[in-house]
Each structure stands twice: as C-alpha cells, then as structure tokens.
Design brief:
- The protein is mainly α.
- The chain has 7 helices and no strands.
Length: 179
C-alpha cells in the first residue's frame, strides 16, 4: 500500500464516538463500523475479493480477518502501536453474544465496543497522515437524535430490568352479570 494514499486506509472515527454510537444503537453502529472498514479494505487496499456487506453481515466469522488486515497494514507502515487480533476478535465475539443472555446478564453486551478500541486506535494512527481521513469525532444532528431517542430507550430498559413490575393478582374467573 502506498504510504500517501488518496483515501484513508480504514474508517476514521474517534474512540468516543465509536463507543457512544455503538452503545445507543445497541450494536448496530458496530456492524456499520465493520462494513465501512471492509469497504476501505476493498478500496484502499485493492482487495476486489472482499464483499463488505456480506462480511459485515457475518461479522462473527469475519472480525478476525479484519483485525488481521488492520494490524498487517500497520506493520507494513512501520507503526509501533499494535494489538493482538485474536484477542480483539475473541473479546468482541464473546461480549457481543451476551445480548442473548437472560436478564440482567445481557447488559454485558454493551461492553462489546471496548474490544474495538485497540483496532480503532491503530486505524486512527494509520489515517493520521491522510488529509482525506479527518477524524470523525463530530456528532451530527442525526447522531444526536439517535443518542436522545436510544438513550431514553436504554434508560427505560435499564429501569425495567432493575425494577421489574410486580405481577398483580389476576382473578381466575370473572363473572359477568347480565344487565
């Protein structure tokens, strides 16, 4: 890969925005993160065999290859910041599947963006010298709307999980008298 490319090597986003948007969208932003990074792999690295949509859809199987691509690109550019792709993939998959656990353990799924932080920091280092890779740290109006709506939803779900409603007595039979 050319040291000075016209496009960023990978998806530029601040760590804070990655965490906030991943949390308030219940992980949907992470799927978009994987999609955008695979799209950059296809464009910037010239990997025409990569189909970003399918790799994002089947992220559990393709997160390790993406983490490896990022680290390989960083090594080829001589970056000193690194991480272990296997541990990031294992951490992300393990925590991401927590959404399927019963109450209240599914809350651990909110921690899944933490496994993306090492890779995102390397991505931001890779993109540091790219004029077209301005760090995406600004929250757009749509981001703010999503944060407000999802934040309220997360708060309500949290309250409902921590303080479940006590079931009231429901009569077995109800008599209806005529008239």
């Amino acid at each position: 890969m050319n040291h000075k490319t016209a496009v960023p090597a990978f998806f530029p986003v601040s760590v804070l925005k990655l965490i906030v948007m991943s949390t308030v969208t219940f992980g949907i932003y992470q799927l978009a993160w994987f999609y955008w990074n695979w799209k950059y792999v296809r464009q910037a690295l010239g990997r025409r065999d990569v189909m970003p949509f399918w790799r994002a859809l089947f992220t559990y199987f393709f997160c390790l290859p993406l983490f490896r691509e990022i680290r390989l690109c960083a090594a080829s550019r001589g970056l000193t910041r690194t991480y272990h792709p296997g541990w990031c993939a294992l951490g992300w998959v393990t925590v991401a599947v927590c959404w399927h656990l019963p109450d209240p353990y599914w809350f651990a799924g909110f921690l899944s963006p933490l496994a993306l932080i090492p890779a995102q920091k390397v991505i931001n280092d890779l993109n540091a010298d790219q004029p077209a890779a301005a760090l995406n740290r600004r929250f757009t109006a749509w981001n703010v709307v999503a944060i407000a709506i999802a934040g309220l939803l997360v708060a309500l779900i949290t309250i409902g999980t921590i303080f479940p409603e006590e079931p009231g007595e429901i009569p077995d039979e109800v008599e209806i008298s005529p008239g």
